[in-house]
């Protein structure tokens, strides 16, 4: 039974901030990469595997991926010119792209698509600022959000339920 409830318990861990701010921030950055990167590319699957293998907060990763996936089409007009500049307009890389295109695995990243290239550049540039800001927000706003949550009527209903007793028992075992 607890196997079925693990995702819900992970969400409760996020709400209770049982994950460290660094794990939550890393999960948000990985979720940004997963959500903004077009599905089916090699690096999409690599970041998905990284989110499953490394010790990051899965709920933060999931929520970030869903949010970024929803706003990704709105950001395509920003990604396209960035990718076009790197792929076509910048002469420094003119010999690199044909060589990479004929490499064994690299074409599976679809780097030759201007939107994919622009998205990768954006994610590389945004990863450190997103990590720093989200870690700071979790550290500063976490206790305030928790105090508001713990004083709310819905939280008291949840805390007094049988489900929450299972959750406490699950963590006591382990």
What does it look like?
This protein has 174 residues and is mainly alpha-helical. Helices cover 78% and strands 0% of the residues. It has one domain (19-140). The protein is built from 8 helices and no strands.
Average pLDDT, rounded to a whole number, is: 84
The total of helices stands at 8
Based on CA atoms alone, the radius of gyration comes out at: 20 Å
The overall strand count is 0
Distance between the termini: 15 Å
List the helices and strands and how they pair.
Layout: H1 2-15, H2 21-36, H3 42-53, H4 58-89, H5 96-101, H6 114-150, H7 153-159, H8 162-173
Quick overview of this protein structure:
The protein is mainly alpha-helical. The chain contains eight helices and no strands.
Notable characteristics:
8 helices, 174 residues, mainly alpha, elongated, single chain
């Amino acid at each position: 039974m607890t196997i079925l409830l693990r995702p819900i318990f992970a969400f409760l861990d996020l709400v209770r901030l049982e994950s460290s701010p660094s794990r939550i921030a890393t999960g948000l950055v990985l979720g940004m990469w997963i959500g903004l990167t077009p599905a089916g590319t090699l690096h999409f699957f690599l970041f998905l595997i990284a989110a499953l293998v490394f010790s990051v907060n899965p709920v933060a990763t999931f929520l970030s991926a869903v949010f970024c996936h929803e706003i990704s089409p709105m950001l395509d007009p920003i990604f396209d010119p960035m990718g076009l500049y790197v792929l076509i307009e910048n002469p420094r890389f003119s010999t690199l792209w044909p060589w990479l295109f004929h490499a064994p695995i690299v074409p599976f990243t679809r780097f030759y698509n201007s939107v994919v290239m622009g998205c990768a550049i954006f994610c590389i540039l945004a990863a450190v600022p997103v990590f720093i800001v989200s870690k700071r927000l979790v550290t500063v706003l976490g206790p305030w959000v928790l105090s508001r949550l713990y004083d709310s009527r819905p939280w008291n209903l949840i805390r007094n339920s049988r489900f929450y007793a299972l959750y406490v028992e699950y963590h006591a075992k382990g």
